[in-house]
Amino acid sequence: MADIRRETAPISVSQASALAKNTLKGLGTLCVIGEVSGFRGTARGGHCYFEVKDAESALSAIIWKGVYQSLGFTLEDGQQLVMYGDFDVYKASGKLSFVIRYAELAGEGMLRQQVAQLERRLAAEGLMDDARKLHVPEFCERIVVCTSFSGKVLHDVEVTLARRNPLVVVDRVECSVQGKEAPPTIIDALRTAEAMRPDAILLVRGGGSFEELMCFNDEGVARAIAACTVPIVTGIGHEPDTTIADKVADKRASTPTAAAEQVAPSIKEIRGKLDDRRMRLASAMGAQLSARAAALEALASRPCLTSPYALLEERAAELAQTEQRLADAPLRLVERLSFGTDKLAIRLDHAGAQMTAPFSARLARLEANLHALSPLAVLGRGYAIVHAGGHVITSYTQAHAGDALTVQLADGAIEATVTATQEGRLDDER
User: Fold this and answer.
1) Which region holds residue 302: left if phi is over 0, alpha if psi is between -120 and 50, else beta?
2) Left if phi > 0, otherwise alpha if psi is -120 to 50, otherwise beta: which for 34?
3) What is the mean pLDDT of the chain?
4) In this structure, are residues 214 and 236 in contact, taking their beta carbons and an 8 Å threshold?
5) DSSP 231
């Protein structure tokens, strides 16, 4: 101990932490595989603090916020991680931590991560939307089963279909349902089945591990299912197993047997439905016939059918009454109009007299003035008008001896002949 003290100079705790930190940095980036433990979600600020462990040891681990958001999956206890990072020592406490710069799921976890990413991408394209999916007929007369011929799945499906409904015609198209070579065979089988134009296609296989079902998480298979013009029903694995193919398919069943049951209702069920519909049809027909019979009986009991002549006589009497009313109507109308017209005539005479009274008086005065100026009035006082040849003579020079004259008096005319003419007035000679 004395030798150690003489050879080692004392340093502070801070210096010791700094020395450890610098030494660990010299190790550079490490790749560590371990299991997530004690994960409680993100801390304040978005960073993650947890442990990674194996069968013998455990390490404190840190993932900063930005790194965690870029992983593409959520951390959970029990996950196997492949982590890339470096060691660091927290100066304040001297705590050793493994700072993860990048991480990915190992084994099945990595596969699940890849499947989840593909599922999100296909869902964003709309391949899993219900609006895109085809309707599977309630009763299929012809079905094509796409599966491996080596297993018992095909036998189970055929037995189920034969038991439930032996009238269903079943065709088969073989394909691989496991391994890397399986997806192309599944795609070819779906195309062959589609060309056969059945009512539905069953894509089925028995249970298996997540890795064994990976061919049904293939992008090409998913797109082939979405592009198929014939409804596809999947029955892949067992109840908990759900693949991308199940989510893209037009209908998903939990098992191959359940898929067969969905496309082939049992004969017993069909007979029950037919009996029920026959009874409902008979009841509805009976009700219709009863209603029609009642309506026919009501029509037959109408007077127009039971006593047509009495109805004709009644209609004739009504027509005669209508004719008489039509004949009387103009007379009553004329009487009403005449009564009103007489009253209007009286009112019109009275109004006319009132309106013309001022004008009648003026007209009388004008008539008197006109009469005073009239030549006839002058003739009445002893004057005469002399015409010769259709013209009034106003001078003796207009007449000559032998001319025929007409002398107009107040009460008549005198035909005369000119014997002589002379200048001057007659009263001048007197």
Assistant:
1) beta
2) beta
3) 85
4) no
5) -
Give residues with Cβ within 8 angstroms of 154, minimum separation 6: 145, 147, 148, 172
Rg (alpha carbons) of the chain, rounded to whole number: 64
pLDDT at 310 over 80: no
Q: Which of 75-84, 97-106, 242-251, 328-337 has the highest mean pLDDT?
A: 242-251
Q: Of the given ranges (160-174, 350-364, 382-396, 415-429), which has the lowest mean pLDDT?
A: 415-429
CA distances from 373 to 97, 369, 378, 381, 387 (A): 150, 6, 8, 13, 20
Closest CA to 37 of 98, 88, 89: 98
Choose the most confident range, by mean pLDDT, from 99-103, 172-176, 349-353: 172-176
Give the DSSP letter of residue 216: G
Give the pLDDT band (50/70/90) at residue 430. Answer: very low
Q: Three-class SS of residue 261? A: helix
pLDDT tens digits, 125-142: 999 999 999 999 988 999
What is the identity of the amino acid at 308? Answer: P
DSSP 27-60: T--EEEEEEEES---B-TTS-EEEEEE-SS-EEE
Helix 219-227, helix 182-195: angle, nearest 10: 10
24-53 as b/e, with b when 16 or more CB fall inside 10 Å? beeeeeeebebbbeebeeeeeeeebebbbe
Which has the closest alpha carbon to 88: 71, 101, 107?
Answer: 101
- pLDDT for 46 beyond 70: yes
Q: Is the dihedral of CA 122, 127, 131, 135 positive or negative?
A: negative
Q: What is the DSSP letter of 135?
A: P
Instruction: Give me the helices (H) in 233-307, please.
Output: 244-248, 256-263, 267-300, 303-306
Strand partners, 144: 171, 201
